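dumping this here so i dont lose it
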C-alpha cells in the first residue's frame, strides 16, 4: 500500500532545519559545549523495525486515523564536540504510545495486549547540511517506573550515542531512576527539553528543541 501523504515529507524535514536553527539555544559554537550524556537504550529498542520507519510517527501507512496523543514536533541539530554540524548522521527515536505501551514483545507480555497500531513507535531520519533533524511524534507519557521520555540513538562516522530526552516540568523527573544517574547539572540540562505550543502553519500541537552534542 502506498504511504499516506501527511504533509510531513523528507523535504519538509530538511527545509525546516534552517528555521529550526533560529530556535536553538546554542550561543557560542565551539566554545566548550557540554556533550549530551549517554543513557541506556532500555529493553524496548525494536527487535524488528516497522515497514513504516520514517520521521512521522503519528501517521502509519494503512491506518486511517492518526495516533492517539498530543502531536509533538521534536527538532534540533547534531553537533560534534567542537560545535560543528554533523551531516548525514542517522538519528533514531523510539518511545511508548499514549497508553504507555511499546511496540515490543517484552512489553506486550508484561502489560498484556499490543501497542496503538496507529502509532509507529519508532522512526529514523538523517541530519541535514546544518546538522538539523526533525521528528513528528506524540508527547511522551509516563508509565509505571518511568517519567515521560523519548529514546534517541545517533550514529555518525566516528560517533555513536544512545540517550534519552525528557520533558521539562514533569514531577517524576525528580525520582526517575534513569534520569537520576545524571548528577552534573549541565549534563542534566542537556536532556531536559521544554515543550511549548507550536506556532501555526503545518505544525500544530507542541514543539521542542533537542540539540545533540556528540562526545569526543
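and the seq i came up w/
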Amino acid at each position: 500500500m502506498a504511504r499516506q501523504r501527511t504533509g510531513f515529507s523528507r523535504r519538509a524535514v530538511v527545509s525546516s532545519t534552517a528555521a529550526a536553527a533560529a530556535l536553538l539555544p546554542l550561543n557560542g559554537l565551539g566554545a566548550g559545549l557540554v556533550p549530551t550524556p549517554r543513557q541506556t537504550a532500555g529493553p524496548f529498542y525494536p527487535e524488528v523495525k516497522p515497514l513504516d520507519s520514517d520521521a512521522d510517527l503519528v501517521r502509519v501507512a494503512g491506518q486511517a486515523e492518526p495516533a492517539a496523543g498530543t502531536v509533538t514536533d521534536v527538532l534540533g541539530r547534531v553537533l560534534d564536540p567542537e560545535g560543528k554540524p554533523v551531516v548525514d548522521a542517522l538519528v533514531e527515536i523510539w518511545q511508548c504510545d499514549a497508553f504507555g505501551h511499546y511496540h515490543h514483545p517484552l512489553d506486550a507480555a508484561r502489560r498484556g495486549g499490543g501497542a496503538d497500531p496507529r502509532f509507529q513507535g519508532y522512526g529514523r531520519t538523517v541530519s541535514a547540511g546544518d546538522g538539523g533533524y526533525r521528528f513528528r511524534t506524540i508527547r511522551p507519557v509516563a508509565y509505571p517506573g518511568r517519567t515521560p521520555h523519548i529514546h534517541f540513538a545517533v550514529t555518525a562516522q566516528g560517533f555513536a550515542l544512545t540517550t534519552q530526552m525528557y520533558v521539562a516540568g514533569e514531577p517524576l523527573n525528580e525520582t526517575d531512576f534513569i534520569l537520576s544517574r545524571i548528577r552534573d547539572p549541565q549534563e542534566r540540562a542537556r536532556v531536559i527539553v521544554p515543550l511549548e505550543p507550536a506556532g501555526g502553519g503545518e505544525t500544530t500541537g507542541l514543539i521542542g528543541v533537542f540539540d545533540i552534542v556528540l562526545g569526543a
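The chain has a mean pLDDT of 86.
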